[in-house]
From TrEMBL:
CDD domains: GST_N_GTT1_like (cd03046). It comes from Denitromonas halophila. This is Glutathione S-transferase family protein. Residues 95-220 form the GST C-terminal domain. Coiled coil: none annotated.
């Protein structure tokens, strides 16, 4: 991995396996960054603990503590920060047209794919029971399918969402597809499953998965 003395080891990711924190860890692995990983056991209520709420008052992961001690939350923001902080990673293409597409599809992943999946998750288990509306899942599935069809059309024309090069947009989109599979949503056709397989086969993705699993294992 490409590292330099400027890449401080004080970066800290607060995360939990089987959550969006994989996106942050994956971006940092693609960037070749040195970082610590702190496991926040959301499934045992650690996200609501006072010490973590002092880091992210929203009680969610991921959160990234930067070298200067400041905190960045939201996966899109963390991915953009990593891409800009480590430009040699290529997470944002050098070509202006491809970079614009990376921004476009990053936002698409967050607003069209993620939001439908999160709606399903919230009304299955995340919201207090009295706030859940199970009937909304049918609409959210329909929204996801419409968005996934647009994603598939893009990937039938291009190798990656930005064009010829892997970017942060692919991290967000492929994570959403993996989330969809775990939520028992079908990925129609062959384009999206093949794309997901290519993304998850990347060495940085495999390191990110292993890093989260190892961090969880240390606490058990």
């Amino acid at each position: 991995m490409h590292r330099s003395s400027m890449e401080n080891k004080m970066l800290t990711v607060y995360g939990c396996p089987n959550s969006r924190s994989l996106r942050a860890v994956w971006a940092l692995e693609e960037a070749g960054a040195d970082y610590d990983y702190v496991f926040v056991d959301l499934f045992k209520g650690a996200g609501r603990a006072p010490d973590f709420l002092a880091i992210n008052p929203g009680g969610k992961v991921p959160a990234l503590r930067l070298e200067d001690g400041s905190i960045v939350t939201e996966t899109g923001a963390i991915a953009l920060w990593a891409a800009e902080r480590f430009p040699a990673s290529g997470l944002l293409p050098a070509d202006a047209s491809e970079r614009a597409q990376a921004y476009r599809w990053l936002c698409f992943g967050l607003t069209e794919l993620d939001q439908a999946l999160w709606t399903i998750a919230k009304h299955r288990f995340a919201l207090p029971e009295k706030r859940r509306v199970p009937a909304i899942e049918d609409t959210a599935r329909w929204e996801f399918e419409k968005a996934a069809a647009l994603l598939s059309a893009r990937l039938e024309a291009w190798s990656w969402l930005a064009g010829a090069h892997f970017s942060i947009a692919d991290i967000i989109a492929s994570h959403c597809l993996a989330w969809a599979k775990s939520a028992k949503l079908s990925l129609e056709g062959t384009t999206l499953p093949a794309y997901l397989e290519r993304c998850l086969a990347r060495p940085a993705a495999q390191r990110a998965l292993a890093r989260e699993a190892a961090a969880k294992g240390k606490t058990q």
